[in-house]
User: Which sequence fits this backbone?
C-alpha cells in the first residue's frame, strides 16, 4: 500500500455522553476522511468509551484527523496505533448441507469454531487479525455462506 | 466559599448565569420554546435585551459586541426557524473564532424526536459550525452546562457555543448553584509555548536574512498587539497583516508593509514570496492569503505560533511549530531576542521599501465621480482612530481593509472566514452597544446592506446611531469584477441598477438618509451624521466599474498580481 494512502488504526477515548459518536463520525464526513470500520464500547469502571476507527490517508491527512479529533471537547485521548495487537471478529452462517467437519477445521485454523447449530444452518465465529479475517472469508466462500457479519477492528497498543 | 442554594426555574437559571458572567447586553428574538426565559428577562434588570428584527442579526450583533470588546457575546433565539435563522451567525463566528454563547429554545423533552411543531435538530445542524454545543437533558445539569458554555467560548481557541434548552426544563424548578469553577478533564488548552521550540525559533530568527512577521487574527483574539509591536520594533523585522489582523501594527508604523493575500499590496505579497523565514503569529494560511500553495513562501522556513494545534502544518510544512497563546509565547520569545542584530535585515528592508515605492497601495482619484477608495481614506481623515469600522462583504470590504488607517486591533470588524454579506450592520449595532463613546461606521455595499436592512428599526429604537456608508456601484461589485476578469464581462445577475430609495428607506424606519454624489456632499453628510447621532444610510454613488487591485487570481502565485493602472484612461471598461 502506498504511503499516500496508508491504512491506520486509531483509538479515540471519549467521555460517555450523548452524541459523542455523532461528533466523531460527522467530523470524518465533514472533512472528507475515510472510515473503513468503526467499533465502540464503554471502558469498564469508567465514564469513558473506547472508539476504534480503521481509516486511511496520507501522513498529513492522518495528522489532521488526529488533531481534529483531539479538538472535539469530549475527546480525552487519541492514539494513533504503531505497535498494536489488533483483532477483528466475524460471524458467518453456512447451510447445514455443507461439510461441517471441513468448516470446523477451517474455523479452527483461524482461531474460531462453530458456535451454533440449527436445523437449517450452522453459525461459526472467528476472531483474528483483520487481514487473516479477509483470508478466512475468502476461504469460506466455497462452503456457500448465507451471511457474513464482520465486527470491525479493535486494537490495543503493545 | 459560601454558597446560598436557591430554588428557581430553568429560565431563571439562564438569566442568573448571564448576569453571573457579567454580560450587560443580550441580543435576541422570542418565540414559543424560549418564552419562559423571556418571561424571566422581563422580570430582571441585570442585563439589557435588544430585540433585533431577525435572528441572524441578533447573532451578528452579539458577534460584533464580542469582537469590539473581547468579551463573550450572547444571543437568544427560539426553536425551529429561530434557530435556523441563527445558523449563519454561528458559522460566521465559528470561522473567525469569536467567543459567543447562543441560547436556543427547544421543544419539550417529551416531544423531541417526534417532528413536533418548530422542532429541529439544533445540535445536529450546528455541530460543524460551533466550537461545541449542548442539548440540555435535565434541569440539574443546566447550571454546569451554562458555566461550561461561557468557559469554552472564551478559552483556548475561542468560538461560538450553542446551548439548546427544551422548554420544560426552563419551566421546571430546582436548586441553583452556579459553579465557581470548570473542570472538563478532556479540555486543557495549551497557553505556554514549548520553551525549547521557542529557543530554536529565536535562533532561526537570528540566523535569517529575510525574516517576515505574518500576523493573523489570533493576535487580535489574544490581545497581543503590544507584544507584536514590541517584537517588530526590537528586531526591526517587517510585518504583513492578514485581513483579520488589520490594526495590530497600527497604520503609519514604518515596519508594516500592509495586508497580504488576494488583495494584498505589492510589497506584502513580494515579501512573502521572497522571505527566508516566516514568523506566523495566529494566522492560518487561508487560501485567500496563500494563493498557490506550492509557490507560497517557497524559500522560507516557517515558525508557526498558534493556540490550535490543528492549524499547525494543516496546509504547509512547518519547521518550528509552537502551540500556545500568542501573548504568552511572545512574552517568552522576546527576551530570547535581546542580542538580535537588526542590521542583518537592513538589506531586506531596503528591498521591500523599493517594492513599495514601485507599486504603492494607490488609486487614481477623479474629479468627475467619487472613487470608493477616496471615501475610505476620507473617513479615515475625518474620524480616524476614534471610529470602529465594520464592513460587509465585497469590494467595499477590501477597499476598507486596504485604505483605512487602522490604529488598533478591534477597530476593524469584518467577516473574514465565512465572508457573510449582511454581517456589517448588525455587527455595527453590537459594537456600538459595547462602545457607545465610539463612532461606529459600517462600510457596506448596495447588495450587502439589503441583507439585514431591517436592523434600521432596531438601531432606531435602541438609539444605536450606526452610520452605514453604502458604497453604491449598482453592482454586486466583487462578483462583477470576477465576471469582468474571468467571464468575458458576462454580467450574469450582478447588475443592481434597480435600486430601492435608500434615503427614504432609512427615513421610513426612523433613521436618516443621505444621497451623496459629490465629495463635498460626502463631507457634509458625514459631519451631519456624526452630529445627529441617529442611525443613517449614506448612499454614496461611486464609480461603477472600479476594481479592487492588486489582485491575485484565485489559485495563482502571490507574486503574480494584477496591478492598478497608472492613469485614468487605460481602463477600457466603460
Ligand atoms: C450571504 C452571501 N451571499 C453571497 C455572497 C457572494 N458575494 C460575495 S461579494 C458579493 C457582492 C457584494 O455586493 P455589494 O454588497 O454591493 O458589494 P460590492 O462588491 O459591490 O462592494 C457577493 C454576491 C456572499 N459573500 N455572502
Ligand atoms: Mg455593490
Assistant:
Amino acid at each position: 500500500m502506498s504511503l499516500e494512502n496508508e491504512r491506520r488504526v486509531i483509538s479515540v477515548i471519549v467521555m460517555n455522553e450523548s452524541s459523542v459518536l455523532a461528533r466523531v463520525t460527522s467530523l470524518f464526513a465533514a472533512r472528507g476522511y475515510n472510515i473503513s470500520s468503526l467499533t465502540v464500547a464503554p471502558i469498564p469502571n469508567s465514564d469513558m468509551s473506547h472508539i476504534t476507527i480503521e481509516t486511511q490517508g496520507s501522513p498529513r491527512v492522518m495528522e489532521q484527523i488526529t488533531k481534529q479529533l483531539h479538538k472535539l471537547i469530549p475527546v480525552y485521548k487519541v492514539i494513533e496505533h504503531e505497535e498494536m495487537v489488533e483483532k477483528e471478529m466475524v460471524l458467518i452462517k453456512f447451510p447445514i448441507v455443507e461439510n461441517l467437519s471441513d468448516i470446523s477445521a477451517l474455523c479452527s485454523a483461524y482461531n474460531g469454531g462453530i458456535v451454533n447449530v440449527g436445523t437449517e444452518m450452522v453459525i461459526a465465529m472467528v476472531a483474528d487479525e483483520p487481514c487473516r479475517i479477509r483470508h478466512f472469508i475468502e476461504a469460506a466462500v466455497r462452503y456457500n455462506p448465507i451471511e457474513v457479519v464482520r465486527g470491525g477492528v479493535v486494537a490495543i497498543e503493545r | 466559599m459560601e454558597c446560598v442554594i436557591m430554588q428557581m426555574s430553568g429560565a431563571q437559571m439562564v438569566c442568573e448565569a448571564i448576569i453571573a458572567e457579567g454580560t450587560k447586553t443580550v441580543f435576541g428574538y422570542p418565540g414559543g420554546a424560549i418564552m419562559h426565559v423571556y418571561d424571566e428577562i422581563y422580570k430582571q434588570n441585570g442585563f439589557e435585551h435588544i430585540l433585533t428584527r431577525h435572528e441572524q442579526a441578533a447573532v451578528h450583533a452579539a458577534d460584533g459586541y464580542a469582537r469590539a470588546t473581547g468579551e463573550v457575546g450572547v444571543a437568544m433565539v427560539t426553536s425551529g426557524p429561530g434557530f435556523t435563522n441563527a445558523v449563519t451567525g454561528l458559522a460566521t463566528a465559528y470561522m473567525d473564532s469569536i467567543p459567543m454563547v447562543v441560547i436556543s429554545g427547544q421543544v419539550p423533552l417529551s416531544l423531541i424526536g417526534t417532528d413536533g411543531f418548530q422542532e429541529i435538530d439544533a445540535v445536529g445542524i450546528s455541530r460543524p459550525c460551533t466550537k461545541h454545543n449542548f442539548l440540555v437533558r435535565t434541569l440539574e445539569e443546566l447550571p454546569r452546562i451554562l458555566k461550561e458554555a461561557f468557559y469554552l467560548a472564551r478559552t483556548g481557541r475561542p468560538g461560538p457555543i450553542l446551548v439548546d434548552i427544551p422548554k420544560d426544563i426552563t419551566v421546571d424548578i430546582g436548586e441553583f448553584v452556579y459553579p465557581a469553577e470548570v473542570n472538563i478533564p478532556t479540555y486543557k488548552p495549551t497557553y505556554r509555548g514549548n520553551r525549547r521550540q521557542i529557543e530554536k525559533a529565536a535562533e532561526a530568527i537570528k540566523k535569517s536574512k529575510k525574516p517576515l512577521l505574518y500576523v493573523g487574527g489570533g493576535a487580535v483574539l489574544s490581545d497581543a498587539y503590544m507584544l507584536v509591536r514590541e517584537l517588530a520594533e526590537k528586531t526591526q523585522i517587517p510585518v504583513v497583516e492578514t485581513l483579520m489582523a488589520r490594526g495590530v501594527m497600527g497604520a503609519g508604523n514604518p515596519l508594516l508593509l500592509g495586508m497580504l493575500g488576494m488583495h494584498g499590496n505589492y510589497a506584502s505579497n513580494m515579501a512573502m514570496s521572497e522571505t527566508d523565514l516566516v514568523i506566523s503569529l495566529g494566522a492560518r494560511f487561508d487560501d485567500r492569503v496563500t494563493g498557490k500553495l506550492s509557490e507560497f513562501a517557497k524559500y522560507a522556513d516557517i515558525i508557526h505560533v498558534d493556540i490550535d494545534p490543528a492549524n499547525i502544518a494543516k496546509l504547509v510544512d512547518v519547521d518550528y511549530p509552537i502551540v500556545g497563546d500568542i501573548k504568552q509565547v511572545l512574552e517568552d520569545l522576546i527576551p530570547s531576542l535581546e542580542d538580535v542584530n537588526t542590521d542583518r535585515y537592513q538589506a531586506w528592508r531596503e528591498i521591500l521599501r523599493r517594492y513599495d515605492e514601485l507599486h504603492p497601495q494607490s488609486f487614481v482619484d477623479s474629479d468627475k465621480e467619487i472613487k470608493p477608495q477616496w471615501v475610505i481614506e476620507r473617513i479615515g481623515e475625518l474620524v480616524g482612530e476614534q471610529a470602529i469600522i465594520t464592513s460587509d462583504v465585497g469590494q467595499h470590504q477590501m477597499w476598507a481593509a486596504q485604505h483605512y488607517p487602522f490604529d488598533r486591533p478591534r477597530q476593524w470588524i469584518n467577516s473574514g472566514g465565512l465572508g457573510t454579506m449582511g454581517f456589517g450592520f448588525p455587527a455595527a449595532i453590537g459594537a456600538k452597544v459595547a462602545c457607545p463613546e465610539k463612532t461606529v461606521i459600517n462600510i457596506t455595499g448596495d447588495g450587502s446592506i439589503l441583507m439585514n436592512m431591517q436592523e434600521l428599526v432596531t438601531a432606531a429604537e435602541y438609539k444605536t446611531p450606526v452610520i452605514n456608508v453604502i458604497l453604491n456601484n449598482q453592482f454586486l461589485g466583487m462578483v462583477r469584477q470576477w465576471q469582468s476578469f474571468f467571464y468575458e464581462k458576462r454580467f450574469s445577475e450582478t447588475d443592481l441598477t434597480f435600486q430601492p430609495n435608500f434615503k427614504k428607506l432609512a427615513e421610513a424606519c426612523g433613521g436618516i438618509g443621505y444621497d451623496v454624489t459629490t465629495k463635498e456632499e460626502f463631507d457634509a453628510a458625514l459631519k451631519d451624521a456624526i452630529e445627529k447621532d441617529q442611525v443613517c444610510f449614506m448612499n454614496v454613488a461611486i464609480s461603477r466599474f472600479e476594481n479592487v487591485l492588486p489582485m491575485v487570481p484565485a489559485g495563482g502565485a502571490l507574486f503574480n498580481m494584477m496591478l492598478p493602472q497608472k492613469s485614468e484612461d487605460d481602463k477600457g471598461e466603460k
User: Anything to note?
Assistant: The interface with chain B takes residues 14-15, 18-19, 22-23, 26, 30, 60, 63-64, 67-68, 70-71, 73-76 of chain A (CB under 8 Å). Residues 1 and 7 of chain A are 8 Å apart (CA to CA). The first helix of chain A runs from residue 20 to 30. Chain A has two domains: 3-82, 85-157.
